[in-house]
Design goal:
The N terminus is likely disordered. It contains nine helices and two strands, in the order ααααβααααβα. It is flat. It is mainly alpha-helical. It has one domain: Hexokinase, domain 1. Helix content is 56%, strand content 4%. Helix 2 packs across helix 4 and helix 4 runs parallel beside helix 7.
Length: 138
């Protein structure tokens, strides 16, 4: 059996969607695995059921990892999810699978439930921050 992801960040970057589809294909679902760039199109269009299942899995894994990181640093001010994929799949993240996995932390669930989670939607947040620092406002 091939190792598809050695660390959680491998699952949560562009290759992760293709890996998620490959995993689902291995468990008996008949899917046409596409390159991640082919899947990163306009998420507002109707998706095939297989892609929705892969997205649900991706959102759940992203929520679990984000919740773990929030706990690790006690991010009481919130956890910010940034990158190219999160804004494109915002409707899927808002469906509840992300937050459910984010909050599912056993005895520590009461701590995590109070942490807000945000998706950064600015197209160039790094440049915006650099401009603020350069201008002396940041």
């Amino acid at each position: 059996m091939a190792i598809l992801a050695r660390r959680s960040s491998d699952t949560l970057i562009g290759a992760g969607i293709g890996a998620g589809l490959a995993i689902m294909g291995m468990v008996g679902r008949k899917l046409a695995v596409q390159a991640p760039t082919a899947l990163a199109g306009d998420w507002d269009e109707a998706l095939a059921a297989e892609h929705e299942m892969a997205l649900a899995l991706f959102c759940s894994v992203l929520g679990a990892v984000a919740g773990n990181l929030g706990l690790m640093v006690l991010a009481t001010g919130g956890v910010y999810v940034a990158g190219g994929i999160a804004p494109r799949i915002l409707p899927f993240l808002q469906r509840g699978g992300f937050r459910e996995a984010f909050d599912r932390k056993g005895r520590l669930h009461t701590l995590v439930e109070r942490m807000p989670a945000y998706v950064v939607t600015h197209p160039q947040p790094g440049l915006l921050g650099a401009a603020l620092v350069a201008s002396g406002l940041g």
